[in-house]
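Bumping my old thread because nobody answered last time. Still need a sequence for this structure:
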């Protein structure tokens, strides 16, 4: 059974590599950009689901960790000429002026700095619970954004950074997304993952079983912050330009939307939801433009796609209160059972 699952997973990864090669070679830049966003939001969704879904903490500070990751990667990968052009109001701090790193070390440092800030925030904040924790983490995220807006010689303030090298591609985004999925699956199925779930279900019972609540909460928060920083770095180098206004609460809400829709506490649900939400938002973009129906023209209303998408989301939440997957995960056993169930029906036989 284990050998069969190993082979099927390996074949799936090979097919993914073939698809990425085909997409990179033959698909247009717009579709490639959407695929990159799907993979990046998968990373961000999983990082937030670890904190909110698996550990049961109500955190709303993800945008702050993404900002740290995006700015760290951008500053370290910007060329010297690009730094001079960006920092025309006030020169960049001397230690950073001539520093140019390769993408991967910059991305790794972005995750580490985000994790460090996550630890420093989590140590005091995670003693709070429920709404108080949400308000505290939201406040920290806003503090980070305001600090970035006012550190002109490091982040270029409200002007943001432009000409960021477009290092993010399908191989980087999907490669890190696959690594994140594997890491999260191994973590959740380990003793630490079981401790996270125990804390989510009942903190008092978990503590009575010998689980160190503070240690495991801070661990979950720090790991989630690390992957949020990596996702932010990938996003910054995909877009090519960033500014503090990008990292408002709305960005955290979008990621929270993904994990609620997919299922709080489901890796599979988060992956599916990240693709569904990202592609749906682009597919509904026509609603913002005028629609010609022949006899009359419906004028375009800016933001209409978000209204329609919100209504569809409300319907999903009402009829699938636990999300599309709940706390269930994909398994080859279930997948093969579905195939065996459908095969006789396709042939006209009885199940």
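Sorry it took so long. Here it is:
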């Amino acid at each position: 059974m284990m050998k069969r699952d190993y082979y099927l997973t390996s074949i799936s990864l090979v097919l993914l590599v073939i698809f990425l090669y085909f997409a990179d070679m033959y698909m247009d830049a717009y579709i490639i950009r959407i695929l990159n966003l799907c993979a990046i939001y998968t990373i961000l969704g999983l990082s937030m689901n670890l904190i909110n879904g698996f550990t049961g903490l109500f955190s709303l500070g993800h945008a702050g960790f993404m900002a740290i990751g995006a700015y760290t990667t951008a500053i370290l990968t910007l060329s010297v000429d690009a730094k001079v052009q960006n920092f025309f109001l006030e020169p960049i701090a001397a230690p950073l002026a001539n520093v140019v790193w390769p993408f991967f070390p910059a991305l790794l440092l972005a995750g580490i700095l985000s994790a460090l800030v996550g630890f420093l925030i989590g140590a005091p904040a995670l003693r709070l619970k429920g709404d108080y924790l949400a308000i505290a983490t939201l406040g920290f995220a806003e503090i980070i954004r305001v600090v970035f807006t006012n550190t002109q010689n490091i982040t270029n303030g409200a002007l943001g950074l432009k000409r960021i090298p477009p290092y993010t591609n399908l191989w980087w985004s999907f490669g890190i997304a696959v690594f994140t999925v594997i890491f999260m699956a191994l973590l959740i199925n380990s003793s630490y993952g079981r401790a996270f779930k125990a804390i989510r279900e009942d903190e008092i019972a978990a503590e009575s079983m010998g689980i160190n609540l503070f240690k495991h909460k801070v661990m979950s928060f720090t790991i989630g912050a690390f992957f949020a920083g990596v996702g932010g770095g990938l996003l910054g180098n995909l877009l090519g330009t960033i500014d503090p206004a990008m990292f408002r609460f709305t960005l955290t809400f979008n990621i929270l939307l993904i994990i609620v829709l997919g299922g709080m506490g489901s890796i599979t649900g988060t992956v599916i939801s990240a693709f569904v939400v990202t592609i749906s938002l682009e597919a509904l973009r026509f609603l913002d433009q005028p629609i010609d129906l022949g006899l009359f023209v419906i004028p375009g209303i800016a933001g209409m796609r978000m209204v329609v998408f919100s209504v569809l989301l409300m319907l999903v939440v009402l009829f699938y209160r636990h999300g599309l997957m709940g706390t269930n995960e994909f398994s080859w056993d279930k997948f093969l059972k579905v195939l065996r169930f459908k095969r006789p029906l396709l042939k006209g036989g009885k199940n």
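The radius of gyration is 22 Å. Let me know if any region looks off to you.
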